[in-house]
Amino acid sequence: MSDPSRRAAYGAEHDEASWRAGLRTGAPTLFGIAAWGLVVGVAMVKSGLNVPQALAMTLLVFAGSAQLASLPLIAAGAPIWVIFTTALVINLRFVIFSALLAPHFGHLPWRQRFFLGYVSGDLAVPLFLQRYPSDKPAVGKVSFLKGLVIPNWTTWQVGSIAGIFLGSAVPAEWGLGFAGTLAIICIMVPMVAGRAALCGVLVAGAVAVLTAALPYKLGLLAGVLAGMVSAMAVEELSGKRKDK
Q1: HSE-CB of 91 using CA atoms within 13 angstroms
Q2: Which residues have a Cβ under 8 Å from the Cβ of 69 and sit 6 or more positions away?
Q3: Per-residue pLDDT, 56
Q4: Neighbours of 75 (CB within 10 A)
Q5: What is the predicted pLDDT for the residue at 167?
Q6: For 22-66, what is each residue's pLDDT tens digit?
Q7: pLDDT tens figures, 71-81
Q8: Which residue has better confidence, 143 or 196?
Q9: HSE of 4 in the Cβ direction (CA atoms, 13 Å)?
Q10: Neighbours of 244 (CB within 10 A)
Q11: What pLDDT sits at residue 2?
Q12: 103: Cβ–Cβ under 8 A, 6 or more apart, which residues?
C-alpha cells in the first residue's frame, strides 16, 4: 500500500466531516470545561502564583486535577519532588488512556502522537472509543479526535486564562470549591447516557450523602463503589433482557 493510501486508510489525512462530528460530540462538555478552567485559573492566583507563573502552568501542564493538587503544596513550600510525585500519581490515568488509544494512532509520526497526547483530556478517550470501538483502520480517526480535543484544549485555556486575570477580583467568600463542583456537574451531565449511567450517578450521589459523616471522606469512596456496582448490575440486567 502506498503512503498516501496508507495515510487515508488510517485516517491520517484531514477529513472535514469527521472533524465536525468530533466537534459536535464534544460540544456539550465545553461549558463545563470552561467553568472548570476558570476555577483552576482563579485558584492558581489565589495560591500565590503570579500571572506569568500561572500562565506557564496552565499552558504547559494542562491538567486541572494535578494543578489543584499541586497548588497547596507549592503554597506550603513543599519539596519539588513531592510536588512532581503528587502530580504524577494523579495523572497516572493517562497511561491507561494512552494504552487505549495506542492501537489507533501508533502508526503516526512521533511528533503527531506527542501533539495529540498533549491536547487530549479525560473526556476525549471515552468519546473517541464510543465512535471507534475497533482499532481497525478507518478514515477520519485523527480528524475526529482533533475535533474533540482541540476545541476542548482551547476552551480550557480561555477559561483558565480568564480565571488568572480575574482571580484578584474574585472574593474569597464566593467559595471556589462550590464553583468547582458546579463545573464538574456541567461536564458530567452530558455524559449520563442510558439507564445504567443514570442509575450509577443517582446511587453514587445518594450513598455519598448518606455516608458523609464517615472519617477521611470515605463516604465519597463508598459512593463511587456503590455507583459502579449498581451501573454494572443495570447493564448486566439490560443485556440479559436483550438476549431473551
Answers
A1: 21
A2: 86, 87, 90
A3: 92
A4: 12
A5: 73
A6: 999 998 888 888 888 888 888 888 888 888 999 999 998 888 888
A7: 888 888 888 89
A8: 143
A9: 0
A10: 4
A11: 46
A12: 135
Statement: residue 183 has pLDDT above 70: no
Residues 22, 143: Cα–Cα separation, whole Å:
8
CA gap 156, 137 in Å, rounded? 30
Tens of pLDDT, residue by residue over 108-126, are: 999 999 999 899 888 888 8
Q: How many CB atoms lie within 10 A of CB 229?
A: 13
Half-sphere exposure (Cβ direction) of 89: Cα atoms closer than 13 Å: 7
Query: What is the C-alpha separation between 118 and 101, in angstroms, rounded?
Result: 13
Q: Are 32 and 184 in contact (CB under 8 A)?
A: yes
Task: Assign residue 18 a region (left: φ > 0; alpha: ψ between -120 and 50; beta: otherwise).
Answer: alpha
Please give the share of the chain, as a percent, with pLDDT higher than 70.
82
Q: What is the DSSP string of the chain?
A: --HHHHHHHTT-S--HHHHHHHHHHHGGGHHHHHHHHHHHHHHHHHTT--HHHHHHHHHHT--HHHHHHHHHHHHTT--HHHHHHHHHHHTTHHHHHHHHHHHHHTTS-HHHHHHHHHH--TTHHHHHHHH--S-S--TTHHHHHHHHHHHHHHHHHHHHHHHHHHGGGS-GGG-HHHHHHHHHHHHHGGG--SHHHHHHHHHHHHHHHHTTTSGGGHHHHHHHHHHHHHHHHHHHHHHHHHH-
Question: CB 188: neighbour CB atoms within 10 A?
Answer: 14
- Cell output for 198: 443514570
Enumerate residues 6+ apart whose C-beta is below 8 A from 198.
192
pLDDT at 206: 94
pLDDT at site 163: 86
